[in-house]
Amino acid sequence: MLAMRAMGSRPKISCPFTVPLYKRRMNARPIIIAVDGLAATGKGTIARRLAAHWDFAYLDTGALYRAVGVAVLQAGGDPTDAQAAQKAATALNPASVQALMEDPALRMPAASDAASKVAAIQGVRDALLKFQKDFAAHPPAGKKGAVLDGRDIGTVIAPDAMIKIFVEASPTIRAHRRFLELQGRGENVTEAAVLADMAERDARDASRATAPTKPTDDAIILDTSDLTADQAFEKAAQIVEDTLK
User: Fold this and answer.
1) How many CA atoms are closer than 13 Å to the CA of 205, on its beta-carbon side?
2) Domain count, the chain
3) What is the model's pLDDT at position 27?
4) Which of 142, 165, 181 lies at the terminal end of a domain, its last residue?
5) Quick check: 56 and 244 in contact, CB under 8 A?
6) What Rg value do the Cα atoms of the chain yield, rounded?
7) Which of 89, 109, 142 corresponds to the end of one domain?
8) Domain limits for position 126
9) How far apart are CA 112 and CA 3, in angstroms?
10) 64-74 helix and 94-101 helix, angle to the nearest 10 degrees
11) Cα distance between residue 78 and residue 69, in whole Å
12) DSSP state, 140?
């Protein structure tokens, strides 16, 4: 079981929240929903469903470096080539990102390796920071709002977001979820190894000098440790509903 304070395929549920609610607060500025949290907390599933429910634009910021890495590889380039990587990063637009997000190559080991290489290039980081900020400030396709999920949305990308949700879950629950995910992909891993790797990354993300992963003072904490995917979404949707009243 996943839990708030679990995520699988997107089930069909009857949600009690009114989709056109945001129209009562429409103004010149888009509504930005920042969904932050560590890996395997369920933040991605929550963010995607919030975006679909309110018909907002959605951006998985964590996949952007993979998108750049894959774009370089597909062009026959080397991800360590700063010029090629920066060119790929600056060429990104909402349409191309959406296409790349649906490309199975984005989830392959080669994409992960390429992502780590392009992420070390400052020009790429600068270009993607600008892309994310522009996406939030000007949601594509005429959408009235945007939902961004990542690790520093509320602190760096959109510190003025109207709604900030920080998703948490216990380390053991998160490790079990990730273990099942990797196992489903056919990867030969142990749950203990997944937990150890996750603990190491958590410590690194929380202690880094630039954009550490942490909730802002005005973020609402959502613990998904004991929640199903539906329950987590409903609680997040209630947070949005309460804020937009």
Assistant:
1) 16
2) 2
3) 53
4) 142
5) no
6) 18
7) 142
8) 61-142
9) 28
10) 90
11) 9
12) G
The answer to whether residues 122 and 153 belong to one domain is: no
**178 with 194: CB under 8 angstroms?**
yes
Collapsing DSSP to helix, strand or coil, 181 comes out as helix
Q: Is 42 helix (H, G, I), strand (E, B) or coil?
A: coil
Determine the distance from the C-alpha atom of residue 94 to the mean position of all C-alpha atoms in its chain, rounded to a whole number: 15
**Residues in the chain, pLDDT under 50:** 1-14, 22, 24, 26
Q: Do both 237 and 152 map to the same domain?
A: yes
Question: What tokens does 129 get?
Answer: 């920071």
Q: What is the CATH number of the domain that holds 15?
A: 3.40.50.300
According to the model, what pLDDT value does residue 28 have?
Answer: 60
Distances (CA, A) of 144 to 23, 140, 176: 9, 9, 37
How far is residue 105's CA from residue 92's CA, in Å, rounded to a whole number?
A: 17
* Of 206, 190, 129, 199, residue with least CA distance to 170: 199
